[in-house]
Amino acid sequence: MIRLAEHNDIPFLYPVLIDFFEYSNLGKWGLTADKLSVMKTISHLINNDDSVVFVSEKNNKITGSAAATNANWFGNFNQFKAQELWLWIDPDHRGRDGLRLLDGLIEWAKKMKVTSLMLISLPNKDRSKVERLYRLRGFEPTEIIHERKI
Fold it and tell me: Which domain holds residue 100?
């Protein structure tokens, strides 16, 4: 089941997002994730009218999550561009929930009258699976991000 996240989900979302953080290897760039910051970020996104957090749930256990935020497009303030912040399903629960979370983000973006929605795929062994999932819903690769630890 996919649904909007609620404040009482926050303690259960924390371990899901730590799994995402560890899998994504973002620590390589000097990034860290502490419990208070992660929980405050989730709370902020749930409270913010320009953001959304979804959870996937099986047997009353959160097995994944997706989040996005939306802002004016700098080239035209009458347009909005949304960006996915994370889309993560526990590897033991993968299947249709990834598509369902992605569909939730797309429907949210449509409701927000967003012009475009940007998704990220991390350069890891599952990248081709993630990109296939994105292509199934009409997304196309547009740029490559380069990162450096400072």
Answer: 2-136
Are 64 and 16 in contact, with CB atoms under 8 Å apart?
yes
For residue 84, which phi and psi values (nearest 5 degrees)? -70, 135
CA distances (Å), origin 138, targets 91, 96, 120, 121, 141: 24, 17, 14, 15, 10
Residue-level pLDDT, tens digit, the chain, 150 residues: 999 999 999 999 999 999 999 988 889 889 999 999 999 999 999 999 999 999 999 999 999 999 999 999 999 999 999 999 999 999 888 888 989 999 999 999 999 999 999 998 877 767 777 888 889 899 998 888 888 888
The CATH number of the domain holding residue 77 is 3.40.630.30
Residue 122 is assigned to a structural domain of this protein: yes
DSSP 16: H
Using N-to-C axis directions, what is the helix angle for 127-136 and 97-111, rounded to 10°? 50
52 occurs within a structural domain: yes
Q: Would you say residue 150 lies in a domain?
A: no
Looking at the domain assignment, is residue 85 inside a domain?
Answer: yes
